Amino acid sequence: MSGRTLANITYRGLQLTFFVLVAAHITLDPGYPWWWNLLPLVLSWALLVAAHRWGGAPDSPRAAREPVEVAPPVTGRWTARNSPADRTPSHGTHAYGQTFAIDVVAEPEQGTRPGFRPLWPLARRADAYPAFGAPLLAVADATVVRATDRQRDHLSRTSLPGLLYLMFLEGAVRDLFGATRIVGNHVVLDLGDGTYALYAHLQRGSLAVREGDRVRPGQLLARCGNSGNSSEPHLHFQLMDGPDPDTARGVPFTWQGIGVPRDGEVFEAPSTASRPA
Q: CATH: 2.70.70.10, 3.40.50.300, 3.30.40.10, 1.10.287.950. Which one for 68-271?
């Protein structure tokens, strides 16, 4: 068992201990101050910080790599969010190999994507967003090493109550069950040379490939959804140095003809027919 795997197990064990202590305090009244229940959370946070500094940070030897150039995983008009062009780790953490991850949301026409609303509507159906059902494409010659699409596509979390629910309750519970519940339905491709591509938050039942399949650039893999730890239908894309996001480190990428779009930047990805062979 690797050190990172052991750290992940300990981290989730401490989180689970917190929930057990809270439940015990409510039902049994053990007689000690309630804030003692927070000790496992503090320890889990300290462990997470130490683990990231120890083996996941971008300046660690295995993570210090030149960007890998791949084809864009989408076609059409999209907007970048949480981009590594602006900061790393792009999502505020090195966990799950996310150091150089990027989120993209489809915006085929200005104003067609529902925006954030403070209070109402609390949530929207996934199919209200133009990204939902958009084709996701292979970025290189590769082998499919992971492919799953059984998790449901949930409602959006694009109101203030919905976002708070996602951040402080839903996200914490998903984190207890590991990377699969965080990334939702997903595909992992082995690109060779120790590089793997992860596509997260896929639409339920949309897989067009199976584990073991060989794919070529531009080949349909699945469709964009809203499964896992996701606020709205979008693609979360990242490169990693291993197939398991629980233990992998992030690898920087650049998209052919696009580069790495900055946060909020609108970009146009060419269709598969117009991409260079």
A: 2.70.70.10
